Amino acid sequence: MAAYIARRLLWVVFLLFTITCITFVIFSVLPSGDPAVARAGRSPSPQLVEVIRVQLGLDKSKPEQFINYIGDILPFVGGNGIYLGFSYQNNTDVLPEILERLPVTIFLATGAVILWLSIGIPLGVLSAVKTGSALDRIAMGIALLFISAPVYFFGLVALYLFDDQIGIWPILPGNSAYGEADSLLGKAEALIMPWCVLAAAFAAIYARFLRGNLIDTLQEDYIRTARAKGLSERRVIFRHGVRAAITPIVTLLGLDIGILLGGAILTETVFNIPGIGRYAFNAITVSDLPVIQGTVLFGAFFIVMMSLIVDILYAFIDPRVRY
Amino acid sequence: MSTGTGASDLLHADDHGIDQIVAGEAPVAARSPLALFWRRFRKDKVALVALTFIVLLVLVAILAPVIRNLVGAPPPGQTSTDALDDFGLPQGPTSEHLFGVDSIGRDIFARVLDGARVSLLVAFIGTGLSVTIGVTLGMIAGFFRGWVDTLIARVIDILLAFPVLLLGLGLASACSTKDGCLGGALEPGLTIVIFIIVLSNWPYVARIIRGQVLSLREKEFVEASRSLGAGNMRIIFREILPNLVAPIIVYASLFIPANILLEAALSFLGVGVTGQASWGQMLSEATGKIDTAWWYMFFPGMALLLTVLAFNLVGDGMQDALNPKGNKQK
């Protein structure tokens, strides 16, 4: 087990290094625009651009810039902790801005995860147990509909219907409500709509996935054995069926959480929730490359770390995993 | 005959067929894997309706300019202040503008039609390229094995572990600044969207094809063909490839809706398609105007939803047809 974990850790280090290289290429080598000009603001003097160029280290060669970039990111090298660059637009460091928004994104993700698991899992089990029934057909039909609708379209429809300012049935706080809420309860209320919209798509995916898995599992020989032993159907389904069929959900969940923590960019954009995704979106609209670069790197870090956690967790819960 | 044998292995010939052979009745004419696949797919009525919808949609996309002229809608890019009301607000659906107009007076019907072209073009080209690259590399890896296989399998592993879409979003936004990338060689728009699609899709295709080829190459019909003097190329194209057609179609049908959504999401974020109407981009423009102009978000959104739903239904139907032992069983 220790060797397995060590191997996964090495793999993660390799992945993170490669990702860092690629983000450097994407943001510092490929773009044709001059970052010094972008940083200097509107119609700058050539002298100012030159000063900024030296300040940002852009006068150095690309390999030197890359080494500086790595030094900035690594916590104990270069003497500046973890440094993800400096926003052109707001004159602020990127990392503190991201960390400030992280709780918002975590709040959004946590609520959505709880909601979609508590809908998706029971629905998947019910559909699998009652395959072909009206309930199964309706549930899977609706699930496919939710999977097919992009979250931002559903978000807009939800706002159109329920937003307390503009909605047809004005019952829920809608667009921008999170930023305006001052209590935790108010913030939670503001997230009801985003939670539901985000959870709908994921609940649908999980229900379909679990249903398929459970149907396959229930055809296994050991299930027949369990029935032959005279176990109650409930026990067969939950103790033997669901328990085996649900393990792959752990992988799915881990990766989805990783992706969401990196910024639920579409949901946060539609509902104007001041999380990491909205921060990235705002940066995209004004081409603030250091911010986009920082959020991409931050999100990639979450995704890779979550996949590591999932791999290790999986080795514990599923005895069939070879390591 | 050789492909027939492979087909029954791959597709698990239905029990009925086996019973007949076992009972020693007259041998049934060998059906190609594709014919078997189609026979099962045909039984799924919902998927058939969805397939019809897709065929119509493709026709609509191809004939978009003709249809636009038929209903007398202006070109998708044409702005018109006449279409705005006295307060400068866009008008809803009228006989003149079937789906209403947007805030600068462009006809939404014409733009939704135009968006269909973009969506389908990106999805088909992106998926086609991904499948071509994935199948080629997967077959090379699975058939020739050795160091080529090791190399390709490693690349697949790395790409699958990568947050490709996130980096793709980074690439698209880095290149959507006004100067573009690489001195303008890599421009924002269709090229980058398709590039991201291909990069994120092909490893999945290659992994599946590699696995299939690894098992197919050991089958008796390949051995038989080789003993008759067939070379590698003949075996690859005449013996193995026909057995891969059904899974390739299924995976392609699963990738297309995902790719339509990806294009729409990138365009929604403002780093996708430029210069042309796209459903995602229209939804993005509609975001601030849902209280005054519901039609602005409704029509592109519904177009996107129905298209993706239709492709998903067809994909589901195809998956069931390929794997009859699957989830449909009672």
UniProtKB/TrEMBL annotation, chain A:
Name the record gives this protein: ABC transporter permease
Classification via InterPro entries: BPD_transp_1_N, MetI-like, MetI-like_sf
Localization terms from the record: Cell membrane
Chain segments annotated as transmembrane: 9-30, 104-126, 138-162, 192-210, 244-266, 296-317
Keyword Membrane among UniProt keywords: yes
ABC transmembrane type-1 domain: residues covered: 102-314
GO biological process terms, semicolon-separated: transmembrane transport
Topology in the lipid bilayer: Multi-pass membrane protein
GO CC entries: plasma membrane
Organism field: Solirubrobacter phytolaccae
Family: Belongs to the binding-protein-dependent transport system permease family.
Alphabetical keyword list: Cell membrane, Membrane, Transmembrane, Transmembrane helix, Transport
Automatic annotation (TrEMBL), chain B:
Family statement: Belongs to the binding-protein-dependent transport system permease family.
The protein's name: ABC transporter permease
Keywords: Cell membrane, Membrane, Transmembrane, Transmembrane helix, Transport
Topology in membrane: Multi-pass membrane protein
Gene Ontology CC terms, in alphabetical order: plasma membrane
Primary location recorded for the protein, binned into one broad class: membrane
Gene3D superfamilies: MetI-like
Annotated InterPro entries: BP-dependent_transpt_permease, MetI-like, MetI-like_sf, OppC_N
Organism expressing this protein natively: Solirubrobacter phytolaccae
Gene Ontology BP, a term: transmembrane transport
Cited PROSITE patterns: ABC_TM1 (PS50928)
Record domain ABC transmembrane type-1: where: 116-315
Transmembrane intervals: 46-67, 120-144, 151-172, 192-209, 244-273, 293-315
Cellular compartments annotated: Cell membrane
Pfam families, A to Z: BPD_transp_1 (PF00528), OppC_N (PF12911)
